[in-house]
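Subject: Interface between my chains keeps coming out wrong

I've been trying for a while to get a sensible model of this assembly. When I model each chain on its own everything looks fine, but I need the whole thing in one frame so I can look at the contacts. Pasting all components below, labels as-is. Any help appreciated, I'm running out of ideas.
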Amino acid sequence: MHVTLKINDSAHDLTLDPRTTLLDAIRLHAGLTGTKKGCDHGQCGACTVLVNGRRINACLSLAVMHEGDEITTIEGLGSPDALSPLQAAFVETDGFQCGYCTPGQICSATAMLEEIRAGWPSHVSASLDGPALPTEAEIAERMSGNLCRCSAYPNIVAAIRLVAAAREDAA
Amino acid sequence: MTRHLKLDGPDTSRRLDGMAQGVLGRGEPRPEGALKVTGRALYTGDRQPAGAAHGALVRATITRGRVTALNAAPVLAMPGVLAVIDDPRLVRHSGPGGQPNPPEADARSVVYHGQPVALVVAETPEQARHAARALRPDYAPEDAVTDPEDPRAPVDLPEKKQASTGDLDSAIETADVVIDRSYRTASMSAAAMEPHATLAEWEGDRLTLHGTLQMLAVARAQLAAALQIGEDRIRILAPHVGGGFGSKLGITPETVAAAIAARQIGRPVYVVCARPEALEMVSRRSETLQRIRLAADESGRLTGIGHESLVSNLPGQSFSEPVQQATHFTYEAAHRRIVHRVARVHRMMAGPVRAPGEAVGATVFECAMDELADRLGLCPVALRLRNIPKAEPVSGRPYSSNMLAACLTEGARRFGWDERHAAPRARREGEWWIGMGMASAVRVNLVMEAKARVTLHPEATALVETDMTDIGTGSYAVLTQIAAELLGLPMQAVATVLGDTELPKSSGSGGSFGAASTGTAVYLACMELRSRLAEAMGCPEPDLTLKDGHAIHANTRRPIGELMGRALMQAEGHVTPGDATGKVRQATWGAHFAEVAVNAATGETRLRRMQGTFAAGRILNAQTARSQLLGGMIWGIGMALTEELVHDARDGHVVNRDLAEYHLPVNADVPALEVHLLEETDDWATPMQAKGIGELGICGAGAAILNAIHNACGVRVRSFPATLDKVLAGLEQAEAEAAG
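Reply #2:
Try treating it as a single job with all components included. I did that and got this:
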């Protein structure tokens, strides 16, 4: 099947087996291998990308469903010479070890901070009506769909809190 | 020019203390960090060369027997299918950790459920996977024992792993207090986030292979033997590895399959394992059954230690989980017996997983120590302090350094241990019982042979090269820091290239030996360069200061390029283990403290806080060292509370072969953890005084949590993990006893 995917503001005209997941389309057909495959079952979060600003597991979605969507991958958030605030914070706090889950963690955190800003509640929120705050408990809860076997969790939370605190200062 | 050092004794020169650059030990960010956080670091599966075909393994649906017919014809007719590889050299299981001998060939002979028997190669991954699933071999099944406690299972007693001193039975008969308890730990998975993968490409008769591997030289030796070709025809690359934890120590079945397939079809072949393959085919940590017997006098002095274990592995495998490794030297007791049994069962191969031995052995032992302290009415910290030997029991060897007492004392103070209630069920908050527990941490320290090459350029930059890997451990950071410190260069002026068998042969990553072993090779190469620079400067090497690209001596300061006559300088460092290993007992030390809440209604355990205090020699990078220890402690959370590979009772296959059912700790399971590192100078631990750190954090960590559960609610769970069903069953009994 033919599909045009808009990834990181570039159009990719692809001819795909209809069984191709969004993850495999991004990695194998668009050649953007920053997005990782950890389980292919929607269980680890390594393949997290942003679709129209929302975080999803790219392995659980078929590529042909995303014609016209705005897809953002880790490569679209920053580059080694121009790190996004979360990317820089992950380096600063050692929010990773092997680095394999890291693109997913950072994409997930990018959208998660917007969810908090928009007042979406989580399982640990005191109230359903908000406001939601980027506390340690909220971040840990909301980031629990992204597994890290190196277990950098405390440093991941620290990185996200650094960015959340900087935004509050700016606000 | 090579500078070689055999480690025969202590090196008291402590040359690193005299350096001036000031980068070693600091929490420098990882040099490869920017690549990793932007998705630019290329792992094995990310290479995607043009023209690559894709392979998928066909795996056995019987536990034991033979493939009598592969039935490949219908699959070969499927769209895109290029070949069905059924080569007698295909291997049944992974290569042994750290040893050059290859895995067993003849994959048509099945020895465990889920074993690969063939490889389907197709144009796309979807086609390969579909065809591999469609292939239906005929089998001639045979009976198989899969449960290590099945009386029909053959049991080996490896001679080197048995030990007896004094008369344990008499010590138990005459002791004031005796603990005799059996514990079970579950099969566990390394479950690195990057599943195993191989890309194989031939040019003529030379193979280039990208792989998810921890020890490249070992992998090359295993692969050469498996393919029956010379090692010099194989180049292996692994610049970035997405976690290993022991599961990538040797080659895995897809390594061999990809290499054979690529040769056969004349194209590059990718085989990327699916998550279930990583969980049910690669390797596991053996389940254990451990009986601990402790005899003590009423003051808490141990007189007898018994540690018997039953672990398992496939028939013929030499590895057996070395459960008692630290039992030999952690605590004093005149009468001791160690019995190590290995049941031969048809489950996926058991291999080394993070801290093989102590991870489960010290954890169980520390639970038994808690039971003893409870029985004696003695503080668990005091019990341990009372039994720290002055020299290694039985052998009488001195410790190169023993920091256990310091870690226990300092850890207890920082944690606020004196606020613990000695009796269980003393602290309640709403529906939660609150309790504290602790455990000692101990892990043997190993050094392996390693080489590295360092090239110094006159414009004051350096290049470090070795076939070492960075599996998340921080190799790039610490090797860069060692060279920068010794050569007096800023971090940015040193480039480190790893993960290529064309480079000098390192220790590889495993057994916590990577940084100290390969780091020492880098140290030696740099010391050789320093000597040559000192000669040019006209001073003895110890009097030479190198800083920011300049050499300084007396009142002279010269750019190093000038000293080098504008020519580059190169040296190789080579370290080999020597007699030091036999002369002293070397280990790393620590203490874990945990506070848990146990729900009185559901039996759910939530870890509230945890603290580890450790000593592991000179710390090369404060930040990556802390990360390693945090990671180890969190593995302890998994071992204590959530992780269990469940084997089907009928055929031994792994029932929970995905990450929804095999429960790794997630972010919400991990509260704020604290890590404290104590200063330790161990002159026996290489001239850098650095020791292993990657595994220490897991050793005993789970015991602190399990002991805290008992302190909270009075329940002893002796079958790990302590899932809520087990705690709940104990709660009913504990309540009855409290009421009774």
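Reply #3:
Confirming on my end. The two ends of chain A are 46 Å apart (CA to CA).
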